[in-house]
Design a protein that fits this description.
alpha/beta; Rossmann fold; 10 helices; 4-stranded antiparallel sheet; 264 residues
């Protein structure tokens, strides 16, 4: 897949990766890490809403949410739309991504970094989770693809998912983006099977992200709630309305469709 870059706003080499913000033809302003588009103005909402809201809706009262990764702040933005949330902790290893996003990607984070409910921590997510004492209702893993970055690899392991299970409440959930099942089936299967082995219920779903050039896969693990039974159109729409969540892409019909299609 070839994309035409119309204008480059910033290029920076952090301790961990190359960070680029550029105007990309057809997709607008985009965050590019080590040559991979992470978010684009045209479709970032499709990715972030799909990652965040199925898990958030499935939990009846998510008050404490942990985000690992998500440096541009869009996942944090979507989490904070739920009025039940009292604390959203975002842990990212690369402070430079956050600072670049604050300056060049304001529509992506929507000032979520400055919300009083948000706590931003610069740390390795693996280390943070292993040392965590707090308990969370939902953990969201918004990471670079497991095959595109050395720093993300260990955060897709079964050991890491078990550590997350430890810091989840009794009815807690975890959701991760899992790259492309089509192009990297073995890697995807390892992620999906690991979560399936640990959690009582699991859900696999996928959403086409045009700027990625493929369907992005997601895997959700749940201790108590069966997503296949609960994520129906009327239920989802009623929860989003009650919590005052406004979306551009995700709604009850789309979530029910994602759950129905799934990957099995």
């Amino acid at each position: 897949m070839s994309l035409r870059v119309k204008q480059v706003h910033v290029v920076k080499r952090s301790r961990y990766q190359e960070i680029v913000v550029a105007e990309v033809e057809d997709f607008g302003r985009s965050l590019i890490l080590d040559g991979y588009i992470q978010s684009s103005e045209a479709d970032e909402h499709v990715y972030h809403e799909s990652l965040v809201h199925p898990a958030m809706v499935l939990h009846p009262n998510p008050t404490k949410v942990l985000i690992i990764g998500g440096g541009e702040g869009a996942t944090l933005r979507e989490v904070l739309k739920h009025k039940t949330v009292e604390l959203a902790v975002m842990v990212d290893i690369d402070e430079d991504v956050i600072e670049v996003s604050k300056e060049y990607l304001p529509s992506f984070h929507g000032n979520a970094f400055y919300d009083p409910r948000a706590r931003i921590i610069i740390e390795d997510g693996l280390k943070f989770v292993s040392e965590a004492k707090e308990v969370y209702d939902i953990v969201i893993l918004d990471l670079t693809d497991p095959y595109s970055s050395d720093i993300a690899g260990p955060l897709y392991s079964e050991n890491f998912y078990r550590d997350i299970h430890r810091i989840l409440s009794n009815n807690g959930l975890v959701v991760t983006q899992a790259g492309s099942a089509f192009f990297y089936r073995d890697v995807y299967n390892s992620i999906a099977n690991s979560i399936k082995n640990i959690y009582r219920y699991h859900l696999e779903y996928q959403v086409w992200i045009p700027s990625f050039g493929y369907s992005c896969n997601f895997v959700l693990g749940s201790k108590e709630y069966n997503p296949i039974e609960h994520l129906k159109k009327e239920f989802v729409d009623s929860i989003l309305k009650f919590r005052g969540v406004e979306t551009k892409f995700i709604n009850g019909q789309r979530i029910e469709a994602l759950v129905s299609i799934g990957i099995y």
